[in-house]
Amino acid sequence: MRPTASRLIDTRVIFCGDNLDQLRKLPPACIDLVYIDPPFNSNRNYEVFWGETKEKRSFEDRHESTKAYIDYMRPRCLELHRVLKKTGSFYYHCDWHASHYVKVMLDQIFGENNFVNEVVWKRQSAHNDAKQGSKHLGRVHDSVFLYSGGRDYKFKHLYGAYDEEYIEKAYRHIESGTGRRYRLGDLTAPGGGAPSKGNPHYEFLGVTRYWRYSEENMKELHRQGRIIQTKPGTVPAYKRYLDEGKGVPLGTVWDDINPIHSGDSERLGYPTQKPLKLLERILEISSEENDVVLDAFCGCGTALVAAQKLKRQWIGIDISPTACRVMALRLKKDCGLKEDEKLQQLGRGFIVRDLPKSEVELRKYPPFEFENWAVVALGGTKNARQVGDMGIDGRIYPVTAMPGKRGATVGELDFMDEWYPIQVKQKDKVGRPDVDAFEAVMIREERKLGYFVGFEFTRDALYEIDRFQRKEGREIRALTVREILDEELHKS
Ligand SMILES: C[S@@+](CC[C@H](N)C(=O)[O-])C[C@H]1O[C@@H](n2cnc3c(N)ncnc32)[C@H](O)[C@@H]1O
């Protein structure tokens, strides 16, 4: 049987596109858990504000930009509220830049009464932020706001281990024979054994009191060895064993989850990637197996991987085709899922929907996204060096040259001499000067084969490519976007 929780929607789908449009396609009340971690530069104003010169900006500028950010987020949060079930939960991850404005906006959308918690995630140590000469304390935490869809939302308490100091203090008794640590619990009625509503009054082990439990229950507990009287005449107490305790209930300050560091195995190089442990914790608190988790700003897909690992259903949305490809790769590698429509229908695969399919769409792409699209479509690897790539946008490593190493990055493949450069130009017509420049790169790098991607090539450019091959014995394959799209269509 198909392991999908929802008859309302398709799950294990990554939608590529603006979440405002994508969310409008979803029916109401179909999601159990929403997590979002929106970027702070979702629009131009905001980008200016949070850019390099932010500290120098006046209060008016800040106010304007914050307003622009909130105006951008409000319709999206309204949609997220619409798709959330009454039993569901909504998490909004942000930081000091706009957290207070975000809270006010969310109170208006979800209702103040549905505000559950603000989680403080300590993501770095103070010295990263409070540099010498700065006049502020280290900004070391993110805020994660939790709202519920209604009164009967799902919630599970999590517990952490007690620390040693607490154990020494609170559980200071050790049971002879078993060596079990325990603490003494009060058996007298609430209020220290004073007359109180409905509590029984009787004599037990020579002490007459209002007790917490009936005489019968007390006798049974005593028989089980759960009651201790340290000296005759003293008030008996209940033995609470350390090994029976659940641990410390998780609070709102999370300082036990490290951010992603450069050496971490889960690091993908996506600048805003959140740790898997953080998302797993959120999912454990607010969802159950087979529930539907939605991340509408899903970046490199941390929430989706967490959902897959914890046997939840999931939907991801991201506006960046690069991000969609990165997370597709991650789901394949980390979760062993196949990108396959038929398997997705059977509950064993996933699909990416709405990736750009036309030249018109690709012309409108930001240059960086266009470059990425072309390099990935050719089966290449993006050049890791953003600056100083010296005319190379990506490299193709032929299959025979692959060392078969999982997770190898461009840097790790540098030692391999068998690679072909890729040059990408998002212009209507690639001309002779563009080809000349690429030829220089091929000679400098001593490459026999290279790829050039553009929308079209001038006749001069094609003539030069031909001349270059005949004279230098080096081949440049001129590929148009149309050809690549046709090829991709063939593959699918
Ligand atoms: C901060 S990152 C999320 C990182 C993610 N939590 C992770 O751990 O990988 C924000 C993502 O939101 C995406 N994004 C920005 N505006 C969007 C929009 N309007 N619709 C969908 N995605 C958007 C960006 O492309 C980016 O990948």
Taking strands numbered 1, 2, ... along the chain, how are they ordered across the largest sheet?
14-4-5-3-2-15-16-1-18-17
SS content category: alpha/beta
What Rg do the Cα atoms give? 30 Å
- Under CATH at level 1, the class of the largest domain stands as Alpha Beta
Tally of discrete structural domains: 3
- The helical percent reads 25-40%
Low-confidence parts, pLDDT < 50 over ≥5 residues?
42-57, 401-415
Number of separate strands:
23
| Spatial shape | elongated
Average pLDDT number? 86
In the CATH hierarchy, what is the architecture of the largest domain at level 2? 3-Layer(aba) Sandwich
3D architecture notes:
The chain folds into three domains: 13-155 and 250-353, Rossmann fold, CATH 3.40.50.150; 160-244, no CATH class; 359-491, Trna Endonuclease, Chain: A, domain 1 (3-Layer(aba) Sandwich), CATH 3.40.1350. Residues 42-57 and 401-415 have low confidence and may be disordered. It has helices at residues 19-24, 44-50, 59-83, 99-110, 164-170, 215-223, 276-286, 302-309, 321-335, 341-345, 359-363, 367-377, 410-413, 432-444, 459-472, 481-491, and strands spanning 13-16, 31-36, 84-94, 115-122, 141-148, 159-160, 173-174, 181-185, 201-204, 207-210, 227-228, 237-241, 248-249, 253-254, 292-295, 313-318, 338-339, 349-353, 381-382, 394-396, 420-424, 449-454, 475-480. It is built from 16 helices and 23 strands. The longest helix has 25 residues, at 59-83. Residues 18-19, 37-39, 42, 270, 272-274, 297-300, 302, 317-320, 323 line the site of S-adenosylmethionine.
